[in-house]
Write a structure and sequence with these properties.
Layout lengths: L3 E8 L1 E5 L4 E3 L4 E2 L3 E5 L6 E9 L6 E4 L2 E3 L4 H20 L10 E8 L10 H15 L6 H11 L11 E5 L10 E6 L7 E6 L10 H11 L1 H23 L3 H21 L9 H17 L4 E5 L5 E6 L3 H12 L11 H5 L3
Parallel strand pairs: 7-9
Antiparallel strand pairs: 1-6, 2-5, 3-4, 5-10, 6-9, 7-8, 10-11, 12-14, 13-14
The protein binds ligand 2P0.
Ligand 2P0 binds next to helix 4.
């Protein structure tokens, strides 16, 4: 029997302007546009292979070596959209094999522990959708395909592009204009680095999907954020990226992380994602910037206590010396930096 296969990798993306709130839960249409930086291909990523054959009996998914269900409504939405596009292609080219009617076998693997408290659904859905669209040889652009990944998990649409990415919220009720677009490729600003400080590997208290709807329904501050804060910040952040203005990019990133966590705290009952260690990191970053009298580092926190720091390559040792100094006493501390590298600043 003939088995057709295709593989792809999709990296994790970390938002610098946060997506938090849906205006349509089924289509994953957001209440605001967002911006992210996609990590490099060989850092944190999902590798997915998709196979199809006339002989396969059922759709199957192996996730990190374990057979998992493909039954979730979100996954079914993605598979249906991809099969519809393939069926359209087959109608135009009758010589193509009828893959749209065949079952799929999917094997997916993360190169980072799923339990590390890092968002894996974005890379996971992005890789799933891209692997199948490659298998089906779909001619649609990455932005078009990102609309399908968005239905799997909102933030997944941004992992279809490398570098600096915007998810334009759109206004159409059917989601036809809610898609990811490239702001700039990775090599536009290759000096940008991200460091992830894993504060806790525990599973998060409040999942993002329910957490954001709780905020939409109960926070007064949320309206202010989506109406008066984010639209302006969306334009300013793109400008900061285009002009490679790190100080501006960093300030907007830190302000947006704080604004997002403020709406979580303003939800009723409140949601706490950051903990004491997270807050210690925030304070330390501001102290580092004050020490150098220059913005050399930015922090951002997602729906959990782990920090992502952004800095330029030239400032890596400056930033890490402080982080090392403050956190080296903590159990579990691990760093690729040697004491010698860092001593100059301690
Ligand atoms: C983001 N987060 O922009 C924000 C910041 C978490 C905090 O996107 O319900 O897993 O699957 O659309 O994409 C996490 O939300 O939520 C997220 P769903 P998703 O990265």
């Amino acid at each position: 029997m003939t088995i057709f296969t295709a593989s792809t990798t999709a990296p994790v993306n970390i938002a610098t302007l946060k997506y938090w709130g849906k205006r349509d839960k089924t289509l994953n249409l957001p209440t605001n546009s967002s911006i992210s930086v996609t990590l490099a291909q060989n850092d944190l990523r999902t590798l997915t292979s998709a196979a199809t054959s006339e002989r396969f009996d059922e759709d199957q998914l192996w996730l990190n070596g374990k057979l998992e269900s493909l039954e979730s409504e979100r996954t079914q939405h993605c598979l249906q959209d991809l099969r519809d596009l393939r069926a359209k292609l087959e109608a135009q080219n009758p010589s193509l094999p009828s893959m749209s009617k065949w079952k799929l076998h999917i094997v997916s693997e993360n190169n980072f522990p799923t339990a590390a408290g890092l968002a894996s659904s974005a890379a996971g859905f992005a890789a799933l959708v891209v692997a199948i669209s490659k298998l089906y040889q779909l001619p649609e652009s990455a932005s078009e395909i990102s609309k399908i990944a968005r239905k799997g998990s909102g933030s997944a649409c941004r992992s279809l592009f490398g570098g600096y990415v915007a998810w334009e919220m759109g206004t159409a009720a059917d989601g036809s204009d809610s898609k990811a677009v490239e702001v700039a490729p990775q090599d536009h600003w290759p000096e940008m680095k991200a460091a992830i400080l894993v504060v806790s590997a525990a599973k998060k208290d409040t999942p993002s999907t329910s957490g954001m709807q709780h905020t939409v329904g109960t926070s007064d501050l949320f309206q202010e954020r989506i109406t008066n804060v984010v639209p302006k910040r969306f334009e300013e952040m793109k400008q900061a990226i285009w002009s490679r203005d790190f100080a501006q990019f960093a300030e907007l990133t830190m302000r947006d992380s704080n604004s997002f966590h403020a709406t979580c705290l303003d939800s009723y009952p409140p949601i706490f994602y950051m903990n004491d260690t997270s807050r210690q990191i925030v304070k330390l970053c501001h102290q580092i910037n004050a020490f150098f009298d220059e913005v050399v580092v930015a922090y951002t926190f997602d729906a959990g206590p782990n920090a992502v720091l952004y800095y330029l390559q030239e400032n890596e040792t400056k930033v890490m010396a402080f982080i090392h100094q403050v956190f080296q006493q903590n159990s579990g501390w691990d760093s690729k930096f040697s004491k010698q590298d860092l001593e100059v600043f301690s």
